[in-house]
Design brief:
The strands form 2 sheets. The chain has a 5-stranded mixed beta sheet with strand order 1-7-9-5-3. With 174 residues, it is an alpha+beta fold. It has one helix at residues 2-29; strands at residues 36-37, 57-65, 72-75, 79-82, 87-95, 102-111, 119-123, 130-132, 137-146, 161-170.
Length: 174
């Protein structure tokens, strides 16, 4: 009986820790279309040099909103072409057309998922709550680069387009 109880407690503990562990692992490794996070000393400016002779990559920007989010949210630029190692800055526009203040939070994904490990965000609005006052409009920057190693990975040789997609949700703590 004690064995069964300890197994149940263990599974409940694993279930409770699953989401934070998933986010931690995916952010560090780029698994499942989650781009790598450059916090924690991983950022090395010397790697941000365009790879000479590398094939250009088209970066497409997309956006969506959850059903409960009443904002308007769109990318200002639909696409950018760059080579691995080159930095880029893109903007999204968020507008709150309602008569109430709304707090939102975004998630993102990178498609194809195998390219996510090379997609490095230097500055981003994702995973931080964003508060927009009634009828407020803001520009939200994403500063990023594609790791130069992308150009040398044989599994990336057929990838010529990467899509960065953000979805905004209404914050549950509002």
């Amino acid at each position: 009986m004690l064995y069964i109880a300890s197994v149940i407690v263990g599974f409940v503990g694993l279930a409770y820790a699953a989401v934070p562990l998933y986010k931690l692992i995916c952010t560090d490794t780029g698994l499942d279309g989650t781009a790598r996070n450059l916090s924690g000393g991983k950022f090395d400016p010397s790697t941000m040099k365009p790879v000479a002779g590398a094939m250009p990559i088209r970066i497409r920007f997309q956006s969506s909103l959850s059903d409960s989010m009443k904002w308007k949210f769109t990318p200002q630029t639909k696409e950018i072409t760059l080579v691995p190692g080159e930095t880029a800055l893109a903007f999204y526009t968020a507008e709150n057309p309602t008569d109430e203040d709304i707090v939102g939070i975004s998630t993102y994904s990178v498609v194809p998922g195998r390219a996510a490990q090379y997609f490095n965000k230097i500055q981003c609005f994702c995973f931080e709550e964003q508060k927009l006052a009634a009828h407020e409009e803001v520009d939200m920057p994403v500063f990023f680069y594609i790791d130069p190693e992308f150009a040398y990975d044989p599994y990336m040789k057929d990838v010529r387009e990467i899509t960065l997609h953000y979805t905004f949700f209404r914050s549950k703590y509002q």
